[in-house]
Amino acid sequence: MTSIERTLRADARRNREKIFAAARELFAREGELVQIEEIAAHAGVGIGTVYRHFPTKQALLTEMVRTRFSRFAEIAIECEEMEDPHEAVTCLFRRSAEEVEGDAGFQLAMMGSDQLHWEGIEQEKAAFAAPATRIIDRAVAAGAVREDLTFGDFPMLMCGITSTMYYSPGGAEWRRHLDLILAGLRPGS
Amino acid sequence: MTSIERTLRADARRNREKIFAAARELFAREGELVQIEEIAAHAGVGIGTVYRHFPTKQALLTEMVRTRFSRFAEIAIECEEMEDPHEAVTCLFRRSAEEVEGDAGFQLAMMGSDQLHWEGIEQEKAAFAAPATRIIDRAVAAGAVREDLTFGDFPMLMCGITSTMYYSPGGAEWRRHLDLILAGLRPGS
DNA sequence: TGACAAACGGAATCTTACTTCCGTATATTG
DNA sequence: CAATATACGGAAGTAAGATTCCGTTTGTCA
Prior knowledge:
2 copies of one chain form a homodimer.
Chain A: H1 3-7, H2 10-30, H3 36-43, H4 47-53, H5 57-80, H6 85-100, H7 104-110, H8 122-141, H9 153-167, H10 172-184
Helix pairs in contact in A: 2-3, 5-6, 5-8, 6-8, 6-9, 7-9, 9-10
Chain A binds a DNA duplex through residues 8-12, 15, 35-37, 40, 45-49, 51-52, 55-57.
């Protein structure tokens, strides 16, 4: 699509995909502890090849985070379509959380564990913030949630839920945490 | 007090204190990223001296966590003395959170960032769990909080609050997060 | 098919901390 | 005030990983 992809040699394009896929899988499993050597081995290429495609480990991990994060905007847009303002908020939290489940690397990124991962994805962030803000503002206006709720609360609360996800993998715990959070959003704080 | 302390040479005891103080301060400021060399320099001793007193960096950090954590049991016991069951729970959450504020290293430990810090402090953990469990059970029995609340929810929720503390230092944000959590504990989930 | 630019592989290099070691200095004790 | 056990300092040793480099291989194009 981009000129870079057009001019890439066939084997290079293939390898890039393989590296990306391997990185996604290992990053999801082990977080930022993945080693480049591991990724290379898993992708069936040499270390040098990984570095040809991604100048640093950081750049590769940022790319992982970016592609996953871009899903958030889609989710927010879908949630916004729901008629019931309260359900839209609930949906926003629940589906965002589900999106993160099972990807330890992304969970760490959500938790801010390494701020570096978040540099360079401002565009994706903004694309999410817009619809999410509308969802929350609408619920506030409708009296469906506590009146002082703002978009800024979302990352904060999600960060908490994500940390439960990360440190108690399995699924049950974080859903309970989410329930408690959603209960706390009820109007009449 | 212990035989170790009694038989310690005077300069050694003094240095141990200095190292401990330096470690506490730097650990609070920088978390587990503190370097032994930094701690030594800050304490005004050589690297070797740090290692004479604490066999590994891990041991030193565990000691930091242990002393801080032992405060938790005291807090829980104090909260238990309050008559109002609901207030006792609120107090438990609030004061625990306040205890963590300002110590980034401990915050990371609370968030489980390195499970190693938690090995070897089982005793302190148990001393806290007992009164905290009683506080929560009493509130449940009194109908002051949602009936499915258990002690197990405490670490989970605190972990979330702590992550807000860590990633948004300054004070305002985490208190809001705490408010939302406390609101979510109300009966009638 | 031959020439050549583009990619590849992975050993070697660099970097960053933790940890060890041992010659030197100092507190303690009779 | 020795004699001696303790403790100290910090250079050197290791280890773990990221990153570079360059000789070799492979796709592309005329």
